[in-house]
């Protein structure tokens, strides 16, 4: 099926080149489609890497290997296959990944553990080794391509290419972060998974880069949901080439570390929100802001319970200020809450405070807010200082159409 | 909106009278509808009671009070209000419940804690005391009604009345269990919650009745899901009048206790499945059978992860044997599983075994199975002896229509 461009799509931003990163794409032909489907990024020697991966226990070989490789902290290349996730394919799938790693390592004369591989698409079909070998060969010899080309090539059911940029000043150097991501279901393992790649010219020690990425992940990628279904392939990798020439960051004691952490967090949030904007069937972008929880973690869980509730998501799709459904979702989250201290609002207008509907509640401004394409749900639990913001989209007929009306 | 009768509906069964139980209905007019909406069941002196209630922390006053009353173990009456759930209404809602308890207790000359009240419908609107008082008065003086009348009167968005019957032999007596239930979303707090009532003429001590009901609940009501949203009002009560004259059951050492437990489990499973058959937008009844888990509890969690997955539910709606989505759901359940020992099948036909797609997999019989209205998903984790069966329905355009296309 051909999918219309999401009404919440954003134009592709102007991404600058990152010193030490070269992008190329090629056609491996994993599916019957007339487009490139293999993305190759070559990274300068000495590039640090960090990664966060799906917790789905039925994860792909790519995820298993990538987790191990990221621990070693060094990267020279990234290969992304689109159209076949290679998940649930046993030893045959693993062989295909190892073949790609060896092929690239031979060309770059590097350790094959420095070659990262991701795959996204249908599951249960081992990645065809012959197509992979020819595709990698073509990519290694291809001309350099743009960020937008790479962003489009890693996509599957995505309806628009997604990129983001951020900058930070470290000492006397300005470092740049550029990133691409794909994903439109939070995950449909036979057709869409979330894969994100962040490239920076900053010099950052691997262990510190991992710490910063893990922390950013908690407040960004872990705070989005489209349909509550967790991919077998979700992967976010951050590569730091060090070409900006800053004094390498190794801890928060280093000058500029806070600025870099903020920029990394910023670019992760941008990427995460772009995935929600391409959520399957999405017509409205929803921000759920939870305050007054016993902790940040508790606030995030309450936010996700709301963002994952089909009844809340369909209410927003129907532009219905149905705060009762939000109360229900708060209550089912399994987190500390006190019904009689709970307040619920939309777009800055409270509908209920301290466990009671507002006596003078005026639905007019709320109804107007819900008619827009950006909706905010405010929840104050009133029992602590923990807060968190999560992002999701509405649940519409198009989600059903995409996932039920067509055979995959 | 008027809802069409579910295509999975069952005819109302022939329920016998239960000695010690008298049913009456009346019109309180909680909503603008031309039907009875208040159900009253009078129970003989000495009736035991047990209950299981929602774990939603934003529960209604009815649930808070009912939980406390069930602990005392004795009941004389039940009042069910339909059209207003009285949830999230603070002290005003609680006053309305206490008024009903006092009014009935005065008529029966009993302790008001022996009068149980449930309410279901819109939330955030205190139950109107004047309508409740007039409705209860009318019910107390109304003629006896049938089980089907009572089942229809407790309903809200239900598309068919639901009842079940079971029998057990205790010593030389045959005891009978008759039950009614309502619910069509696993819960939409502004319009539908699950309320179930089981009546038996058996003599059962309250503490033992509670134990049996709690155990049955784990394998029946806790094993169904329509949309993963947990009501603020879910309640199941079991009343035992003792009129059958059997030697009272107090433990599993008593003759007939096993038979009664089996009958109670049977009637609970019937009721639970009826709710799924009236799931919002349901077109297919889905049984998920999980074997080979590390424990029964683990198997149940894996089953519910599958049954709650929007991607699995839309695949079944689309009659798509998408076992990759089942793999994904197993993996995200957070329970012990080994990708390489996992087997997935539909209707008794395996699609993947031991972590690999079947080489000679023939989709023809599977496709035929999925075209029916009763679908079975088989999952063998291959790592233990734990097993569980859960029930759900598919996720269709009608679910979106019911919950998004109409303002509530």
From TrEMBL, chains A, B:
<keyword id="KW-0028">Amino-acid biosynthesis</keyword>
<feature type="site" description="Cleavage; by autolysis">
    <location>
        <begin position="192"/>
        <end position="193"/>
    </location>
</feature>
<keyword id="KW-0055">Arginine biosynthesis</keyword>
<feature type="binding site">
    <location>
        <position position="280"/>
    </location>
    <ligand>
        <name>substrate</name>
    </ligand>
</feature>
<keyword id="KW-0808">Transferase</keyword>
<feature type="binding site">
    <location>
        <position position="193"/>
    </location>
    <ligand>
        <name>substrate</name>
    </ligand>
</feature>
<feature type="binding site">
    <location>
        <position position="156"/>
    </location>
    <ligand>
        <name>substrate</name>
    </ligand>
</feature>
<keyword id="KW-0012">Acyltransferase</keyword>
<feature type="binding site">
    <location>
        <position position="182"/>
    </location>
    <ligand>
        <name>substrate</name>
    </ligand>
</feature>
<comment type="subunit">
    <text>Heterotetramer of two alpha and two beta chains.</text>
</comment>
<dbReference type="InterPro" id="IPR002813">
    <property type="entry name" value="Arg_biosynth_ArgJ"/>
</dbReference>
<protein>
    <recommendedName>
        <fullName>Arginine biosynthesis bifunctional protein ArgJ</fullName>
        <ecNumber>2.3.1.35</ecNumber>
        <ecNumber>2.3.1.1</ecNumber>
    </recommendedName>
</protein>
<dbReference type="Pfam" id="PF01960">
    <property type="entry name" value="ArgJ"/>
</dbReference>
<comment type="pathway">
    <text>Amino-acid biosynthesis; L-arginine biosynthesis; L-ornithine and N-acetyl-L-glutamate from L-glutamate and N(2)-acetyl-L-ornithine (cyclic): step 1/1.</text>
</comment>
<dbReference type="GO" id="GO:0004042">
    <property type="term" value="F:L-glutamate N-acetyltransferase activity"/>
</dbReference>
<dbReference type="GO" id="GO:0004358">
    <property type="term" value="F:L-glutamate N-acetyltransferase activity, acting on acetyl-L-ornithine as donor"/>
</dbReference>
<comment type="similarity">
    <text>Belongs to the ArgJ family.</text>
</comment>
<dbReference type="GO" id="GO:0006526">
    <property type="term" value="P:L-arginine biosynthetic process"/>
</dbReference>
<comment type="function">
    <text>Catalyzes two activities which are involved in the cyclic version of arginine biosynthesis: the synthesis of N-acetylglutamate from glutamate and acetyl-CoA as the acetyl donor, and of ornithine by transacetylation between N(2)-acetylornithine and glutamate.</text>
</comment>
<keyword id="KW-0511">Multifunctional enzyme</keyword>
<feature type="site" description="Involved in the stabilization of negative charge on the oxyanion by the formation of the oxyanion hole">
    <location>
        <position position="121"/>
    </location>
</feature>
<feature type="active site" description="Nucleophile">
    <location>
        <position position="193"/>
    </location>
</feature>
<dbReference type="GO" id="GO:0005737">
    <property type="term" value="C:cytoplasm"/>
</dbReference>
<feature type="binding site">
    <location>
        <position position="408"/>
    </location>
    <ligand>
        <name>substrate</name>
    </ligand>
</feature>
<keyword id="KW-0068">Autocatalytic cleavage</keyword>
<dbReference type="InterPro" id="IPR042195">
    <property type="entry name" value="ArgJ_beta_C"/>
</dbReference>
<keyword id="KW-0963">Cytoplasm</keyword>
<dbReference type="GO" id="GO:0006592">
    <property type="term" value="P:ornithine biosynthetic process"/>
</dbReference>
<feature type="site" description="Involved in the stabilization of negative charge on the oxyanion by the formation of the oxyanion hole">
    <location>
        <position position="120"/>
    </location>
</feature>
<comment type="pathway">
    <text>Amino-acid biosynthesis; L-arginine biosynthesis; N(2)-acetyl-L-ornithine from L-glutamate: step 1/4.</text>
</comment>
<dbReference type="InterPro" id="IPR016117">
    <property type="entry name" value="ArgJ-like_dom_sf"/>
</dbReference>
<feature type="binding site">
    <location>
        <position position="403"/>
    </location>
    <ligand>
        <name>substrate</name>
    </ligand>
</feature>
